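User: We ran a pulldown and think these components assemble together. Before we commit to crystallization trials, I'd like a predicted model of the whole complex to look at. Sequences follow.
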Amino acid sequence: ILNVEQSPQSLHVQEGDSTNFTCSFPSSNFYALHWYRWETAKSPEALFVMTLNGDEKKKGRISATLNTKEGYSYLYIKGSQPEDSATYLCASDNFGNEKLTFGTGTRLTIIP
Amino acid sequence: DVKVTQSSRYLVKRTGEKVFLECVQDMDHENMFWYRQDPGLGLRLIYFSYDVKMKEKGDIPEGYSVSREKKERFSLILESASTNQTSMYLCASRPRLATSTDTQYFGPGTRLTVL
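Assistant: Here's a predicted model for the assembly, 227 residues in total across the polymer chains.
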């Protein structure tokens, strides 16, 4: 079983502040790294799929970077808003075998 | 608009009951997955199917079985529910031979409580 780890497990951030959290994954046989946002009572929603070392993706105030050599990805949120409150999941796709291995998630709470 | 639906949002069953969780996707995806999510443990893969009538065990298949009679439908079966199967169950689908940028699409989840 591959090990995907996320830190911190939970985070409280003041509205307007920026924040970031980490996903570490096995670097061997790396194929892709997925980020999802999971809001309460909704389906997990895809944010990014990243494949290339050094890649950076952006969606509004949220961005992510990828280091495949050392096996980590950062997710950044700039100017946090209450609607950013959610659990953020990362998942590693190793071997390209169509199964994803998920981390335990970072639960983000934005304090108004 | 892509859609993965699950038959129930909340379900309460008794120990020993047979439980069916249904999942339907309308995207013509070959791959379908069943996960359970427990606090502190993340999403763990129970079973997945890459085609009709094809299935493979995931990381925690014990106590579960699955059925894929039609491409759009993937059922998770608890033959004899036990209290340690109380959990949130999520279904997902993805194209077969996905390109590296194809994501998984998730259903809204079924929160199952076994008393």
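The CA atoms of residues 39 and 86 of chain A lie 5 Å apart. That may be worth checking against your pulldown data before setting up trials.

User: Thanks, that helps.
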